[in-house]
Amino acid sequence: MYTQRLFSRRQFLGQAAAGTAAAAVGPLIIPACARAADGATAPNARVQVGFIGVGRRAQQLMGLPEDAQIVAASDVNRKRLEALKAGKGKDWRIYDDYREMLAAPDIDAVVIATPDHWHALNVVHAMQAGKDVYVEKPMTLTIREGQIMVETARKHQRICQVGSQQRSTAENQAAAELVKSGRIGKVEVVHGANYPSPWECDLPEQPLPERLNWDVWCGQTEPRPYHIDLYLPRAEGRTYPDGRPYGWISYRPYSGGEMTGWGAHGLDVIQWALGMDNSGPVEVWAEGEGLKAPVSFRYASGTVVHLDGKGPGGGALFEGTDGTLWIDRGEYKLKPKSRRAGKSESDNGPENTYGHLENWIRCVRSREQPAANVEIGHRSTTMCHLGNIARWTGRKLQWDPEKEEFVNDPDANSYLQRTMRAPYVL
């Protein structure tokens, strides 16, 4: 049974210290692809990329721009790694322990497509090792993890792109600008999808697949028995009799449910279009009880957001004093209330994962901030977490977006972080 622990306390501290020391040598660790000095890689060299996690979503992200190439990959599933190497990854190095891959000096950047409960450790370790990062959404499992990731990116001056690809989609960019420029007037109400919160896992034990390191997969969570419908993100569509989907995205120890799954897209669009990328709402409450109770937010401007099912899953419906705007993934529909506000217009196109990766690689070279940088990802994912916490506490909560804490509410603040199982700790 392949359950050997890969994380020793000594290794963990030693490698973290080594990464910190490396970053302290100078104000910025420049990737090899961006250096041009005696013996250094020329600026036109391809960005060398490693992958942490090589499952379904990771393989969708492997079509990198021409000026980048994959040179290594790591995963807790050795059989999956070897199958990938035998196919498209014949020239790749493969690792059971992603930290060994991060120690490789020729790797400039990493793509992280692990389950949500692994994102924070993967990102922090990569930044400490001097690597730039593309991390799948949602960026975090808890609000505190996001704060640490932002702090680490600032300290080590790393480029971090969060996988909210609508930020690199032309139609979404145009729609967000229509809202921000006042085309529909003052935004009074926003309607979004009613994303469900996660529930507790109750799956029975199944035989552990050969060469899958399940203890490491469990990571910061308390280990529970393997089951394929826990291991897979959405369990290939399998559901409980009442329609609730299986998969780790649905279970509280590993994810925030679809509130952080699809909600990371929809609520990001709301934050973006309202010009709140560096802030957030000041109040949040659930309209009733249960994991599907509608949730509402209020911003200091007076704009109210209702996750009531009246908006699309990948965006929102904005109602302003001069019109309405429907934004979804790669699509928008503008309906002014009067001729003075202009004509109706709409546009739609495909989602733009490739363009989002292209934006990231360009920023790895230029050191400019990418379209969905770490602070944007943190603030948008925080809004998702606030929605879950409102349901869990069952009362109206006051949120301070500057201090990033609930106002005079120790109980609500206890949800900002969770105990992480040693040695999988930040």
Number of strands: 16
Structural class: alpha/beta
> With helices defined by DSSP (H or I, 4 residues minimum), what is the helix count?
13
The side-by-side strand order for the widest beta sheet comes to 14-13-12-11-7-10-9-8-15-16
N-to-C terminal Cα separation, in Å? 28 Å
CATH homologous superfamily classification of the domain at 167-197 and 259-351 and 374-407: Dihydrodipicolinate Reductase, domain 2
Look at the structure and give the CATH class of the domain at 167-197 and 259-351 and 374-407.
Alpha Beta
What assembly state would you assign to the polypeptide chains in this entry? single chain
Query: Percent of residues in beta strands?
Result: 15-25%
In N-to-C order, the SSE pattern is HEHEHEHEHEHEHEHHHEEEEEEEHHEEH
Q: What is the arithmetic mean of pLDDT?
A: 92
Work out the radius of gyration. Answer: 22 Å
Task: Name the poorly predicted regions.
Answer: 1-6, 15-27, 37-41
Per CATH, which architecture of the domain at 167-197 and 259-351 and 374-407?
2-Layer Sandwich
Shape: globular
